[in-house]
Design goal:
about 55% helix; alpha+beta; Serine Threonine Protein Phosphatase 5, Tetratricopeptide repeat; Tetrahydropterin Synthase, Chain A; elongated; five-stranded antiparallel sheet
Length: about 550
């Protein structure tokens, strides 16, 4: 008799916990489970719950074991680090603060493991793995709509204050622990790192430009001094300056010695002495003035060069002032050009908002061009974080309508490439979805986007999210006849998104869960069910 092979309960993932039903135990889990007593624990369920002994072998390759127990939970006893994006708007009139929440999470002992089964796995049928990606997605979904309360008191003005930041971290950790308590997850540590705000970026840019201007001023002065040294007048100038200083010193000293005597003389004599002193000083300074006049004469000879340098300096200063006052250049509609018309975009959006939306907010959210002339990504048209901002309700309907108007204007730029135009239409689809797909506006925008780029991930995800939430009953038994076509479209979109490089690990984890649920629903098809069952098994090792 051959012994069972060794199997890894994490199945090569960064799982913090896995929960399997014995009836649908993946084939690759049927063997002797590798359990490290220092880092791994297991709990088996039947008529009663059993904590598996640390040093006892657990062989799921035995049919007797699988018959004795109905399910099994594995979990990591140590912490698992994850990161979750945070978008926080302190008030309706402030800019959105963006950061990354890094935290260490762990299962809170045996009791926490029991809660995890009841509070997480049983509420998500078909979900068997809680890895770093799905855990990030779970936390992100859990805190949605609660970020404002978790970070209350933190503003852009105190964002860099260590005390305020620590208070916000502690407050967020305390509230997150309270929220996750029912799921058996404990937050070990939490720290939020914040990206530079619009004001900080502008201040940094201004400081850089000021330094650049100081360097240019110093260079001009250095060049002028060097030219003066080479002119031949420098020695004469220094000689007369030294003579003048010496003469003044000697005369002042002589005056101090004669003061007592002068006091005894008549006022006329004192006046004569004083006039003589002034005359001497005047003569010395006249020599200095003559030397300086010679230098000025020499300067006129070099006026062309210095004039050009000063003109260049003034031009540079003007450019710097313009750079500080404006954030983008004017429109360039040559072949391959990019839409730089930020000012018109901002004015139009501000007009639509009645002036309620800050200029920097619009400029940050609507990015009309890629950086450095490179190819476009969707984030160069619309800030990627706007999806989460919209889900959290950070923007009003009026603000969203303003964004729609701006993107609609951008579709008419003849300089758009197909890739960029597809991204703009995808962005319009995202905003129209959040306005309710009025008159099929989202459908039209998504169709236009996919017509130009059939693999646009933003358009695909927007369409998939809309269809997924459109009819929640579509996954129930007996609904396949009515919703079969829609489920197949969802499955196709999810398969394409899971293969796309631009999709994050946390999003892929969430999409994998949805993909499994969709495949299970399609497997009930009386005609093509075998095909969908086979796909479910080959993709995820699951049998139905």
């Amino acid at each position: 008799m051959f012994s069972s092979r060794q199997v890894d309960w994490k199945r090569g993932t960064t799982a913090i916990a896995c929960y399997y039903s014995m009836e649908s135990l993946p084939k690759d889990m049927r063997g002797k489970v590798e359990l490290d007593p220092a880092t791994d624990s297991a709990m088996l369920y039947s008529s009663k719950t059993t904590i598996w002994p640390k040093n006892k072998e657990l062989d799921l390759g035995k049919s007797s074991t699988r018959k004795e127990y109905s399910s099994v939970l594995f979990w990591r006893t140590g912490p698992l680090e994850i990161q979750v994006p945070v978008n926080y708007r302190p008030s309706p009139t402030s800019a959105v603060l963006r950061g990354s929440m890094k935290m260490e999470l762990k299962v809170d002992g045996d009791l926490g493991a029991s809660k995890l089964v009841e509070g997480f796995f049983t509420s998500k049928p078909g979900v068997s793995e809680l890895d770093s990606g799905s855990l990030s997605s779970f936390v992100k979904e859990t805190i949605r709509g609660r970020v404002g309360t978790m970070l209350e008191g933190l503003e852009e003005s105190n964002l860099r204050d260590p005390t305020s930041r620590q208070a916000a971290n502690d407050q967020a950790q305390e509230q997150l622990n309270s929220i996750l308590n029912d799921t058996g997850i404990l937050v070990n540590g939490l720290n939020i790192s914040w990206k530079k705000t619009g004001g900080e970026k502008l201040g940094q840019k201004r400081a850089t430009l000021d330094r650049r201007r100081d360097v240019m001023d110093a260079k001009i002065e250095e060049d002028a001094l060097e030219r003066m040294k080479k002119s031949g007048n420098m020695d004469q100038l220094e000689k007369h300056r030294a003579e003048t200083i010496a003469s003044e010193f000697l005369e002042e000293d002589r005056t101090r010695r004669d003061t007592a005597r002068l006091r005894r003389k008549a006022e006329v004599e004192e006046a004569e002495q004083e006039m003589e002193l002034r005359k001497t000083i005047h003569e010395g300074r006249s020599k200095l003035a003559d030397a300086e006049w010679d230098e000025k004469t020499e300067d006129l000879k070099h006026k062309g060069k210095i004039g050009r340098e000063m003109d260049e300096l003034q031009l540079t200063k003007a450019k710097i002032d313009l750079e500080l006052a404006r954030k983008q250049a004017e429109s360039e509609l040559d072949e391959g050009s990019k839409d730089r018309d930020v000012e018109r975009m901002v004015r139009a959006a501000l007009a639509l908002q009645g002036g309620n939306l800050k200029e920097e907010t619009i400029v940050e959210l609507l990015k009309p061009e890629g950086e450095g002339g490179r190819s476009y990504e969707f984030s160069d048209v619309i800030n990627q974080d706007i999806h989460e901002d919209l889900n959290q309700g950070l923007y009003t309907a009026t603000e969203i309508d303003g964004f729609i108007s701006e993107l609609d204007r951008m579709t008419k730029n003849p300089g758009n490439s197909k890739e960029r135009l597809s991204d703009i239409w995808a962005g319009l689809g995202v905003f129209h979805r959040h306005r309710g797909n009025k008159g099929g506006s989202m459908d039209d925008a998504i169709s236009n986007s996919l017509r130009l780029n059939g693999n646009n991930p933003i358009a695909m995800k927007c369409r998939m999210d809309y269809l997924w939430n459109r009819h929640p009953q579509q996954f129930l038994p007996g609904k396949l006849e009515r919703f079969g076509d829609q489920l197949m479209e969802i499955e196709s979109l999810l398969e394409g998104l899971l293969a796309h490089d631009s999709v994050s690990d946390s999003d892929k984890s969430d999409m994998s869960e949805k993909h499994r649920k969709c495949l299970r629903a399609l497997s009930r098809d009386p005609e093509d069910g075998v095909k969908w069952k086979s796909k479910l098994e080959s993709s995820y090792g699951l049998e139905i």
